[in-house]
Each structure stands twice: as structure tokens, then as C-alpha cells.
Amino acid sequence: MSATLASSPAGPAASPRTGAAIRVTRLVKHFGPVEAVHGIDLEVRSGEVFGFVGPNGAGKSTTIRCLLDLLRPTSGSVEVLGRDPRRDGVDVRRRVGYVPGELRLPERMTSRQLVSSVGRLRSGLDDAFVHSIAARLQLELDRPTRDLSSGNRRKVALLLAFAPRPELLILDEPTSGLDPLMQHEFLAMVAEARATGATVFLSSHVLSEVQRAADRVAVLRAGRIVAQGTVDELRGRARQRVEVWFSDAEDGTDLFAIPGLEDVVVEGRRLAATLSGPIDPVVAALARHHLASLVVEEPNLDDAFLDLYGGQS
Amino acid sequence: MNASRVELAIGPLRQMRRSLVGWAIGLGAVVAVTVAFWPAFRGSSGISEAIDQLPAGVIQAFGLAGFGTPAGFLRGNLYELIVPLLMAVAAVAAANGLTAAEEDAGRLETYLSQPVSRQSVFFGRTVAMATWLSALTAAILLVQLVSDAALGLEIETLQVISTVVLCGLLALLFGTLALAVAGWLARPSVVLAIGIAVAVGGYLVAALLPLSGPLKAWSGLSPWTWALGGDPLVNPAEPWRYAVLLLPTVALAALGAAGFVRRDVRAA
Asked: Is it the case that residue A15 has pLDDT exceeding 70?
């Protein structure tokens, strides 16, 4: 069963002044002596899927909760769909679907009752659409929320976020606890929402998910954005593993001088190394040799993120 | 009132049904079992004489005056301390369960991320608490009136209604105080401690200060004195007693909402 996850036609899709669905300017958030976010600048364009990644405690959820006006910035400003969430919170939240990272659903009610309750707060939800999403997520609506597994509770949160057909989806670790089949379904739902004009702000630890879904990515570490760009740009920063098998026992020492080629190991006819720069000089140098085989692994986004997480931004 | 605002009160109330039934059964049992002893007290002069031997201050502090009469029996056994105190504890617990405990557990976020204002969420829960307490008050009143009739405890119905309603308003005041604290601070233990401590402290002020000549006038500061100081089981309660309990209740609700719209919402 499938349904199109179209965004609401009501209201402008983005800031009339900035064209950004989300604009965060020099956002700082302290919790007493703890500095969770140190001056983040971020812009999410209308209609894109934006990945927001970083290790635990990096400040992702803090930033997201500022967007919903659940937290108040210590300094800096936040603009969502052209509005200030502090001043126009009701309007902003009407146009936003949200999956919280630390998900705690109200207890003593079934998923169906919870959806009905949220529907009444949102002046009604499309029943057929709700049921189509529930079917896609294989969610039983009549089970009490307290009896649901963490994965099924996450499905309820996804249902609540997608059901209003919001202009902006803010999803904090949305696939946590979901099985691979449901993660795949979730990505399909994101793609459909995007295809109909919605903007998706996707915070995730699952890098493959970000790689598949996001147009652009920001990497957060210790409350600061350490990298921002397209997935390809970030992938380009990753080190690649290069493995060369020469046809004969050749002297490959000229390769040692290539900038960016590191950890070079020569064992007989085999040369292995990692490359952190452009591949052109390597190809040019190898052209002077006879090769039996050449393997250059695709840059891995995980490696790029691990480097960034580790401080090698 | 639009559907969204109704839902903000009705939704939490639905989740409080079990606790309402539990408190109603518990307090109803206290009332019914106490009244069940009335036939044994009626016509027994020995206990009244024994109580008359106690110091006047003790009789006053524990509401034991006229213990052999229906009004004195109910006051001394139920409405001097037990029922209003238990109702206050119930109200504080309900207020905490609707606000600080929910927020501390991260369960408010589902509602606060919807197109509703913080203020309307807070007032919705205030209305839910007041409605919950009204239902509890009605249940206690019903059990009291039925028990009185069944066991021959003859007392003016209006006096009983007035007393139970005043206990309900007293509990509402302490419950709203708990809400006000929760509005500024999402710490369930602090909310419970302050709510219950002020309720118990208020009783001590109302009960003990009149025993000391110089401090007697200060007992008028206690809401317990406002509610029950006129012995409503015997004397018709003056209208100002209802008003003076309601006014700070409204002010506390506004104070709590003012705090809730200003601070961060606590994450789970």
C-alpha cells in the first residue's frame, strides 16, 4: 500500500526573505555551566533533504529542540519557515512534523487514540492517509503505546510526523530501532515527501541513511559544525584505499613522493596505500608502470565522518 | 473554546481515570468506614465525657468538640484533618502527574511539538486537574451523603455539601500551588515536596497557633482557616470563604503559566 507524502499547500514553503526553510545564525545554547552548542550557523534550503550528523552529545538534539521552541537559545537566532519559533511557535509547529530523538510517547492510550488526540490538536488528520502510512510501516494502531517495542514506538512517531503532510519534517534519529525493511520504507517516505516539495531535516547516526537520503550534510562535533556540504563533497574528503598489483617486480618507489599517498606498503608485486588527496597524480605515476590490477575503493562516507568526529576536519 | 483547547484538557484527563477511581475508592472507604462507627458512638456518653477531660487546646486542635454529635463526630474523625489532607495530597499528586512528572519523563514533548501554545498546554492541564479534583470531591460527597443516610447520621445536607466543597477548594489551592511550582521547575520531587509541605504546614498553622495567645491571629494566614475555620459542619459557610480560596488559586495558575512559557522544556 502506498500513498504520496505531499506537503501542505497552505502557507509559504520557506522564508519569503531568505528562501531558507531553516536558518540558524550563531546559535549558542548553555545548560548552566555546560555549553552544548557553540555558535552554529546553518541554512537548510527549501525542498532539500539535509543531513545533520555527529556523535552523541554533539548538540544535534539541542539544536533541533531550539527549532521547535522547546529550548530557548542562550544567544543567536533561529528561523523556521521564515518565522521565529519563539514568537510564532504555533504557526511554525503547524507546518512542521517532528520525530524527537529521545522518544517518550504518552502512556495509557493506544496508537490510534494518540493519533486521534494529535489530530484534534491539528484540526484533523486525513484518516485514509493515516491508515496508509500505518500500513506501510506495518504498525498496529490498537495496541497500547506502553506495550510497543522501541521500533514500533518510533513508527508511531513517524506516523505522527508525516500524517499532517507538513512543509518541513524535522526528524531526530528517526530510524533508531527500525529493522532494515522499515528503514528502507522510511527512506522511500522521505523521498516522496521531498518530491512533493517538503523539506527534510534529518538527524541521524546511520551514515548510510544520510548518504542515500541527503542532498547536503552538516557534521556537528562538540557543539560546532566541523564540515558542511554535499554528500559528494564530504565523501571527497575521505581517504581512499589504493591497491596496485604490478605485472612484474617493478620499482614503485616513485609513488612514495605523491602528495596525499600515505601508509605505502610494498610487498613483492603488491603496493597498498591510502590516498587523502586527488587521484590524478597517482594515475599519472601508475601510467609509467605495467599493472596487473588496480583497486581504488570508493570513498566511504563513514571514514569521512570518523575523521571529522575525530577532529581531523 | 475550540477543539484543540478542549483536547488539551480532556486528553490528559483521560489518562488520569485510573488514579481518579483509585483515590475515590480509597477516600470513599475512609468516609464509609468512619461513618459505620457512628451507630456505636450515638447515644454513648462515655466517649464524650472522656474527651471533655482532655485539655481544651487538644480538643480545639483536633476538632474534638461535640464529638458525640453528628457534626462533631464527622469533624473530629474526618473533616478536621484526614479528608482535607488526603484530598490535598491527591490534588498535589495529580498536579505533579499532569505536569512535572510528564515533562520529566519526556512525554510532554509529543504535545508541545504540536501547533499549540505552551500557555494553552499548561492551562489545559490546570483544567484537567481541577476537573479531576471536582470528580473526586463529588465522589466523596456522594459516599458521605449515602453513608449518613444508611447509618442514621443525621446532619444538614447543605452543611455536608458546603464542608466537602470547601475541602475540595482547599485541595485545589494546594494542587494549583504544585502546578505553579511545576510551571517554573520540572522536578517532580520538588513539586511534590513543596505541595505537600505547604499543605501540612498550613494545617499546623491553623491547628496549633490558636493555642498560643500571641500567635493566634497568625492562624488566619492558613488556607485551612479560610476553608474550615468557621466550622462549616455546624455553621453555614460565608461566601467569602469560597472566594478567598479561589482567588489565590487563579493567581497561582497564572504564575505557573508565566513560568512555563519562559523556560526550556526538559528533555527525557
From this structure: no
Model ipTM?
A: 0.86
Residues B9 and B131 sit within 8 Å (Cβ to Cβ): yes
CB count, 10 Å around CB of A134?
A: 21
Distance of CA B171 to the CA centre of its chain: 2
Give the pairing type, strands A261-267 and A75-80.
unpaired
Same domain assignment for residues A203 and A278: no
What is the tens place of the pLDDT at every residue in B22-59?
999 999 999 999 999 998 877 666 777 777 777 777 77
| B264 contact partners, CB below 8 Å, separation of at least 6 | A31, A70, A71, A72
Contact at 8 Å (CB) between B91 and B133?
Answer: yes
- The answer to whether residues A154 and A264 belong to one domain is no
Distance CA A178, CA A136 (A): 13
CA distance linking residue A44 with residue A202, whole number of Å: 11
Residues A28, A123: one domain? yes
Residue B122 has a CB neighbour count (10 Å cut-off) of 26
**Residue A123: its chain B contacts at CB < 8 A?**
3-4
Q: Please state, in angstroms and as integers, the Cα–Cα distance from residue A258 to each residue in A251, A297, A312, B185, following that order.
A: 15, 18, 21, 61
The grid coordinates listed for B119 are 500557555
B191 pLDDT band, cuts 50/70/90, is very high
The grid coordinates of residue B208 equal 496549633
CB B160 within 8 A of CB B144: yes
Lowest mean pLDDT among A141-145, A205-209, B92-96, B174-178: A205-209
Of A207, A166, A194, nearest to A80 by C-alpha is: A166
Is A282 contained in some domain? yes
Domain positions in chain B are 3-260
More confident residue, A181 or B61: A181
Distance from CA of A49 to the nearest CA of B (A): 21
More confident residue, A215 or A304: A215
- pTM for the whole structure: 0.85
- B79 DSSP assignment: I
Q: Does residue A145 contact residue A114 with C-beta atoms inside 8 Å? A: yes
CA dihedral A58, A60, A65, A71 (to 10 degrees): 20
Chain segment B63-108, per-residue pLDDT in tens: 677 778 899 999 989 999 999 999 999 999 999 999 999 999 999 9
Residue in B106, B115, B118 nearest the CB of A121: B115
In-domain check, residue A275: yes
Cβ(A222)–Cβ(A60) below 8 Å: no
* Residue owning grid cell 507524502: A5
What DSSP element (H or E) covers A268?
A: none
Domain containing residue A247: 237-309
State how many domains chain A has: 2
- What is the band of A5 on the pLDDT scale with cuts at 50, 70, 90? low
CB contact under 8 A, A68 and B118: no
Flag whether residue B118 sits within 8 Å of chain A, measured between CB atoms: yes
Cβ atoms < 10 Å from Cβ of B112: 21
- What are B79's three cell numbers? 473533616
Pairwise CB contact (< 8 Å): A120 & B113 = no
pLDDT of residue A17: 43
Reported residue count of chain A is: 313
